[in-house]
Specification:
mainly alpha; two-stranded antiparallel ribbon
Length: about 140
């Protein structure tokens, strides 16, 4: 039996059309076994933690660049200030200290110092407090 080129062309076109339809059909499973491994599925808690980290990073950036701007920022700064007030003062000044002035309406100008080690721990604590506050506010 001889098959004409027309019939062969028709069979190949029909096969290609059916193959394309199967890819878009619901429940279609790929012939490529690596495809499902490429997809990452995050749990609801994982997504929540990602959002908390992004919001907290944004708030820390805003506080460190511009100071507290709203109630949430002020709440975080009040908590941090309360913890700083409880710390004992370090004796003597070191060369790696940062000296800065704070001017407020109630007390006027006050001069403060902060060592390099304390500034790192202070920034870490600010990040922790921010994450805790964002987490608490998201749960409400």
């Amino acid at each position: 039996m001889q098959i004409s080129s027309y019939q062969m062309h028709h069979v190949l076109n029909d096969y290609g059309r059916r193959l394309g339809q199967n890819k878009t059909a619901p429940g279609h499973k790929s012939a490529n076994p690596k495809e499902p491994l490429d997809k990452i599925r995050l749990s609801a808690e994982g997504k929540r933690q990602t959002v908390i980290e992004q919001v907290a990073a944004s708030i820390v950036e805003r506080i460190t660049r511009f100071g507290p701007r709203d109630d949430v920022d002020q709440e975080i700064m009040d908590q941090l200030q309360g913890e700083i007030d409880k710390r004992p003062e370090l004796e003597g000044r070191k060369a790696s200290e940062f000296v800065f002035n704070v001017i407020d309406e109630e007390e006027g100008k006050t001069t403060n110092t902060l060592s390099e080690e304390n500034s790192k721990s202070l920034l870490q604590r600010l990040e922790e407090l921010t994450r805790e506050t964002v987490n608490k506010n998201m749960a409400s």
